[in-house]
Amino acid sequence: EVQLVESGGGLVHPGGSLRLSCAASGFNFGDFDMGWVRQAPGKGPEWVSAIHSDRPGSYMSNSVKGRFTISRENAKNTVHLQMNSLKPEDTAMYYCNLGIYWGQGTQVTVSS
Predict the structure, then answer these.
(1) pLDDT one-digit tens code per residue, 36-46
(2) 21: which residues sit within 8 A by CB, 6+ positions away?
(3) Kindly report the CA angle at 21 between 108 and 107, in degrees rounded to 5?
(4) Ordered DSSP codes for 74-112
């Protein structure tokens, strides 16, 4: 059974940073690209970032490019999203994503 468990969300001031983590299990983590998706209140899901399984290369949406970085630790079945220079518009529930599978999400709130 695929399980994705996010952590690291919280309340942060504008300009602050957070590091999200996603612990994955139930599949061969090193064989799959992983991603992050977010959903703000009252809005549809927005793809944020993705990273290849076993070769260099990651992708960021224009809205977070230059501020967010995705990384993974295949030995620990974990993918991270480092978020810097956070803005109020980054407020959303953040989900780890593997194809049709999503975690339960971790809330990120950026507010002064």
Answers:
(1) 999 999 999 99
(2) 6, 7, 8, 78, 79, 80, 81
(3) 20
(4) GGGTEEEEEE-S--GGG-EEEEEEETTEE---EEEEE--
